[in-house]
């Protein structure tokens, strides 16, 4: 079973250190972890560092990394492309990176299945440039899932989606994670989503890890005051779920 | 949607197979058009032979007269095949420059490689300067090649520097065009009348000096470099989704970009040094290919090869028929042939150009 351990992980661009001393242990497969923090805190950098796109001090340790490079997949935030490719082709090329020119039927069935699961079959033969922001995010998720990663790093995957699609995508990802044992890290700005869908939460602020642990322990009014500079309460809604109610900025 | 309607709708797999098949048909059609164009190119010339005479000279050279054989095999065929190899090389070079730089304007011409070659050639024609002293009889193409490689390597090493983005590289290329054009103008200003005529003619681009040796060299370079692109097909396609995404798919973006730039430099410099400035093919050949078969490199790469070859081959035909008895410089005709076709493709609005 897959597990992800980060030991004192950091990253820098040139001489500017943008991330330091992140240490986490994600030992339970199938769990979804939120990565939260203010803008420019270093969330994307952390993801890129974990995925090996940038180097830096510390160790990213993946247990039984059976499939080498393919086991960690980073889904970037910016997903625009002007390539003359259809959605279907973009998923195919994601799946075929390590393969030859020949495309097998089972590879195509896999793509069909993912498009169907994401409910974007209708977009399959639309050009990438003709997609709305939300559709692009769904296609992006498809491109990541088709590679069958063991660790999936999603950088604000719901930022351009309508409310229905947000819930849809998060429930879908949680379900697929628990079914396949995939470890999922999601950078989120909507903390209510974190409370609802993510078992654990990591808080990144000013390029360092401010706290981490079980989501309900981490997201507290004190944290919201210190990190986000807002006055907020966390209360149970009528169905018993914790909700953040923001009273105002500090 | 009713169950029947859902069944009637083809699955993604079927639709994809149909799309791929359609593209193979398009490529096959273009390849046929290329074969016809090459045959026509060989049939045309100051001495008019019929297509059947040309074909018999091609396939059973022993049965035809000496004159016909020499004209077809030693004069017309090198020119016709030079058009094919040069067109294909420049088009592939342009296609991959556009891919790795994510810029529709990238081509051997716009990155300054052609301008550098012209300057190198002019150095030889005007000043009698051989940059590489060993090969005096090949002074002009060798000079052109060396300068083209200097420009290409400059672009290559510039792109290895930290903080140099793909946009900066295109800007650097444009700056090179202006620099070498200015240097060329200076040489032209200083040149004797005879040398000036030679430089002007060289910069117009011409296939008439084609020989079998030159055909073999350009074809060999093309055949040696294509396997690299074939092997990197999926990675190069992924690059068009953006660097981060390609990297997250396991592509070593930096290495792929550098290797491609190096190979493309060679691919662009060789033909340019043999035939002079033919600007349009390297820019438009790939765009036509992209419009008809998309950007999946498995179709785009052969598409760029065939479109470039076809564009230059038809241009060669047109350059012969425009004024009977004279062969106009091909660099001049390329744009006249390619532009109308390109406009039709763009304004037909059915497919996106970039």
UniProtKB/TrEMBL annotation, chain A:
Q: Which SMART domains match?
A: AAA
Residue span(s) of domain ABC transporter = 4-231
A molecular function annotated in GO for this UniProt entry is: ATP binding
Q: Which family does it belong to?
A: Belongs to the ABC transporter superfamily.
SUPFAM superfamilies in the cross-refs: P-loop containing nucleoside triphosphate hydrolases
PANTHER family from the xrefs? IRON ABC TRANSPORTER, ATP-BINDING PROTEIN, METAL TRANSPORT SYSTEM ATP-BINDING PROTEIN TM_0124-RELATED
UniProt-recorded name of the protein: ABC transporter ATP-binding protein
Please list every transmembrane segment annotated in the UniProt record, as residue ranges: none
Alphabetical UniProt keywords: ATP-binding, Ion transport, Nucleotide-binding, Transport, Zinc, Zinc transport
UniProtKB/TrEMBL annotation, chain B:
Membrane-related topology note: Multi-pass membrane protein
Q: Where in the cell is it found?
A: Cell membrane
Q: Is Metal-binding one of the keywords?
A: no
Chief place of localization: membrane
InterPro entries, alphabetized: ABC_BtuC-like, ABC_transptr_permease_BtuC
Q: Which UniProt keywords apply?
A: Cell membrane, Membrane, Transmembrane, Transmembrane helix, Transport
Segments passing through the bilayer: 24-44, 75-97, 109-132, 138-157, 169-189, 219-241, 261-287, 299-319, 325-347
Q: Which domain of life is it from?
A: Bacteria
Family statement drawn from the similarity comment of this UniProt entry: Belongs to the binding-protein-dependent transport system permease family. FecCD subfamily.
- Name of the protein: Iron ABC transporter permease
The organism's lineage is: Bacteria, Pseudomonadati, Pseudomonadota, Alphaproteobacteria, Hyphomicrobiales
């Amino acid at each position: 079973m897959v597990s992800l351990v980060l030991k004192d992980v950091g990253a820098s661009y040139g001489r500017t250190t943008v991330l330091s001393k992140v240490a986490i242990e994600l030992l339970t497969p199938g769990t979804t972890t939120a990565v939260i923090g203010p803008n420019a805190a270093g969330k994307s950098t952390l993801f890129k560092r974990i995925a090996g796109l940038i180097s830096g001090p510390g160790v990213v340790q993946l247990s039984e990394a059976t499939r080498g490079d393919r086991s960690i997949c980073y889904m970037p935030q910016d997903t625009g492309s002007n390539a003359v490719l259809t959605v279907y082709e973009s998923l195919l090329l994601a799946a075929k990176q390590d393969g030859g020119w020949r495309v097998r039927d089972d590879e195509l069935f896999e793509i069909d299945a993912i498009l169907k699961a994401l409910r974007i079959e209708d977009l399959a033969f639309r050009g990438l440039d003709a997609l709305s922001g939300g559709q692009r995010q769904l296609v992006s998720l498809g491109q990541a899932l088709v590679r069958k990663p063991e660790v999936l790093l999603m950088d604000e995957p719901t930022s351009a989606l309508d409310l229905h699609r947000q819930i849809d995508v998060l429930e879908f990802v949680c379900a697929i994670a628990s079914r396949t044992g995939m470890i999922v890290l999601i950078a989120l700005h909507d903390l209510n989503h974190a409370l609802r869908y993510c078992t654990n939460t990591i808080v990144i602020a000013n390029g360092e890890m401010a706290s981490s642990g079980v989501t309900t322990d981490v997201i507290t009014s004190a944290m919201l005051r210190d990190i986000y500079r807002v006055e907020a309460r966390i209360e149970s809604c009528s169905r018993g779920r914790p909700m953040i109610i923001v009273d105002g900025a500090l | 949607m009713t169950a029947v309607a859902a069944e009637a709708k083809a699955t993604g797999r079927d639709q994809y197979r149909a799309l791929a098949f359609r593209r193979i048909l398009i490529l096959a059609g273009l390849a046929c058009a290329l074969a016809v164009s090459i045959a026509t190119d060989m049939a045309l010339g100051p001495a008019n032979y019929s297509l059947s005479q040309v074909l018999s000279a091609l396939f059973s050279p022993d049965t035809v007269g000496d004159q016909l054989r020499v004209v077809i095999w030693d004069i017309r065929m090198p020119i016709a095949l030079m058009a094919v190899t040069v067109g294909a090389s420049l088009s592939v070079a342009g296609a991959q420059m556009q891919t790795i730089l994510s810029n529709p304007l990238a081509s051997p011409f716009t990155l300054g490689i052609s301008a550098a070659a012209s300057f190198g050639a002019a150095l030889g024609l005007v000043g009698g300067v051989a940059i590489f002293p060993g090969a005096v009889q090949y002074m002009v193409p060798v000079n052109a090649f060396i300068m083209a490689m200097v420009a290409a390597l400059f672009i290559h090493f510039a792109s290895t520097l930290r903080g140099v983005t793909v946009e900066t590289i295109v800007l650097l290329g444009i700056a090179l065009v202006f620099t070498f054009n200015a240097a060329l103008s200076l040489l032209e200003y200083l040149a004797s009348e005879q040398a000036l005529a030679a430089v002007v003619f060289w910069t117009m681009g011409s296939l008439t000096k084609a020989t079998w040796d030159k055909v073999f060299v350009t074809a060999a370079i093309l055949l040696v470099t294509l396997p690299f692109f074939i092997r990197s097909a999926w990675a190069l396609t992924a690059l068009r989704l953006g660097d981060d995404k390609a990297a997250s798919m396991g592509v070593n973006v930096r290495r792929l970009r550098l290797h491609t730039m190096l190979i493309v430099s060679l691919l662009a410099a060789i033909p340019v040094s043999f035939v002079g400035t033919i600007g349009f093919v390297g820019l438009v050949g790939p765009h036509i290919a992209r419009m008809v078969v998309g950007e999946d490199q498995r179709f785009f790469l052969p598409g760029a090869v065939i479109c470039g070859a076809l564009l230059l081959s038809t241009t060669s035909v047109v350059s012969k028929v425009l004024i009977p008895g004279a062969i106009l410089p091909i660099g001049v005709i390329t744009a006249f042939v390619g532009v109308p076709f390109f406009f039709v493709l763009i304004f037909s609005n059915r497919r996106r150009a970039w």
